From TrEMBL:
Lineage top rank: taxon: Bacteria
Entries under NCBIfam families matching the protein: SDR_subfam_1
InterPro entries registered for this protein in UniProt: NAD(P)-bd_dom_sf, SDR_fam, SDR_subfam_1
UniProt keyword terms in alphabetical order: NAD, Oxidoreductase
Pfam families reported in the protein's UniProt record: adh_short_C2
Family recorded in the similarity comment: Belongs to the short-chain dehydrogenases/reductases (SDR) family.
Protein name as it appears in the record: Mycofactocin-coupled SDR family oxidoreductase
Length: 286
């Protein structure tokens, strides 16, 4: 028996990266998957989004584990579309036990700048709220929700040498901070119902978002067109451990634990999977 055997998990942003990794890891441990992704590029975002073919590939990977997988293209910013996708998945798979609100974008140097702010906030924050809210009617005692925030949400951002210089980049930090607060309050309200809600804060994670020119430029602003070889040495500044990034499966293992019975009394947690990044910025405090 797997650690989430017999469960059904709803995962947004599941076509690639962390979302695909979560789908596969939960399937390996016995869960059926409802996998949703937008699969459409944003004009304001400087790297490509996943494709419909990527989403189909996620389905294939899940089904190779012997588990079922229902997929749908839906924009997390659109609550009605997301509800339609989820309801169809629940109708086919019979129930819902796990929610992993993973979908997110990074808008560093996005153009036009204020539209980049809007797209990031609406995708990361409103999209997370939409995923949770359309799922709530399906959840009962024993269910678990996990939202992906970021180590960026925990960083001290009081020093802003260039206010207004990168609204899309700032929106990423803002959205992740607000996800953290939303989930904290949600966990409080759901606790008496026996439904748990937690947040994971990854550091640099080896996905298409990290491995993109806009991200390279955010670490090497001194270069016009930096490449991986230019940015990778700078990636180490984020972590206390001597690694430039963690892998998606490192986050998936944390997701698996949080939604399993092993964490049945863990709720309201802000769980850092950051290779010690937080330790570089803050002293111990309760």
């Amino acid at each position: 028996m797997g650690r989430v055997a017999g469960k059904v998990a709803f995962i947004t942003g599941a076509a690639r990266g962390q979302g695909r990794s979560h789908a596969l890891r939960l399937a390996e441990e016995g869960a059926d998957i409802i996998a949703v992704d937008y699969c459409t590029d944003f004009e304001t975002i400087g790297y490509k989004m996943a494709t419909p073919e990527d989403l189909e590939e996620t389905k294939n990977y899940v089904e190779k584990t012997g588990q079922r997988c229902v997929i749908a293209q839906a924009d997390v910013r659109d609550a009605a579309a997301l509800k339609t996708a989820l309801d169809a998945g629940v109708a086919e798979l019979g129930k819902l036990d796990i929610v992993v609100a993973q979908a997110g974008i990074a808008g560093m140097k996005g153009q036009p700048p204020l539209q980049a702010w809007t797209d990031v906030i609406n995708t990361n924050l409103v999209g997370t709220m939409n995923a949770v809210h359309v799922a709530l009617p399906h959840l009962s005692e024993g269910a678990a929700i996990v939202a992906t925030a970021s180590a960026a949400a925990l960083m001290d951002a009081h020093n802003k040498p260039n206010p207004g210089g990168d609204p899309g980049g700032m929106a990423y930090m803002t959205s992740k901070r607000m996800i953290s607060q939303f989930m904290h309050d949600l966990a409080t309200e759901l606790s008496p119902r026996g439904i748990r809600a937690n947040v994971i804060h990854p550091t640099n994670c080896n996905t298409d978002m990290l491995q993109s020119e806009p991200m390279y430029r955010s670490f090497r602003p001194d270069l016009e067109h930096p490449e991986l070889k230019d940015a990778q040495p700078a990636f180490y500044v984020q972590q206390a451990m001597k690694v430039p990034w963690v892998e998606p499966v490192d986050i998936s293992n944390a997701v698996l634990w949080l939604v399993s019975e092993e964490a049945r009394y863990v709720t309201g947690m802000q769980l850092r999977v950051d290779a010690g990044g937080y330790l570089k910025w803050y002293d111990y405090h309760v």
